[in-house]
Amino acid sequence: MVLFSMTPVIEAAVERYNHEREIGQAESEEPSLDQPTVGNPISHGQLIDISNHFKEHSRKSEETSGDGTLISYHLNDLLRGTRIYVPPPKPKPEPTSEYKALMARLRVEEEARSYERMLNPVSQPESFSQRFPSAAYHNDLLARQNAEIAVSQEDDVTYAEINRQLALIVNVLVSIIACSYALWMVGRYWSTPARLALAMGGSILVAVAEVVIYSGYIRRVGEAKEVEKKKVEEKEVFDTWIIDAKKGGEKVGQVVGEVLGMDPADGLRLRKGK
């Protein structure tokens, strides 16, 4: 059963319907229409009955209200502007006397506890920073020291790399100069342009060779690192022994000494528990 909320048009139609319907008409379980008011519920079946009643028993299904408004009693006009009726929420049940007495007792107890806390406030737990006020300073100092150590280690690595690069450059320059001087001395009986060309060509050849050799070294080192990363470490258990305090516990020292390759006379001694 669908219920709608009464509108002013439905209210007027119900009042006229109550005035014209026969006395003693059977009443159903649908909402009562004895006191029609805007907002009261009315079923869809009742609206159909009202519309059919005006069609059968009335000369006209439209009339003019006191303010000159035309009122129509057709079903589509009665349904215009209405909404689905939503019943109001049920009122909350009145609390029992036992509930009221319990709430009053709890309120009195809470007020007493509040008053007690006001007279004897509970000391707040002391935090770590309050208990050890210098801890923050030591933490900051330790953090600064760690940062300085990290920076120092990074600087050491940087300096070592710079020294290695400088040594490499010096070695290459020494090789080039020594080779050019040797070739200059080898061609001492040649003309000056020929000796210069020989020395310059040898120097360039040595420089190219040094670059190629260093590049090959760097490439080999990189390949070796990749190979080492791909290797899977395999572990193998060579021997096992059981240490039991109840059975053979006195021989633990000798067994450990033998495993470590120590003289049994100088082996580890078992310390008995108290």
From TrEMBL:
GO terms for cellular component: endoplasmic reticulum membrane. InterPro entries: ATPase_Vma12. Residues 22-45 are annotated as: Disordered. Coiled coil: none annotated. GO terms for biological process: vacuolar proton-transporting V-type ATPase complex assembly. Keywords: Endoplasmic reticulum, Membrane, Transmembrane, Transmembrane helix. The chain crosses the membrane at residues 166-184, 196-217. It is found in: Endoplasmic reticulum membrane. It is a multi-pass membrane protein. This is Uncharacterized protein. It comes from Aulographum hederae CBS 113979.
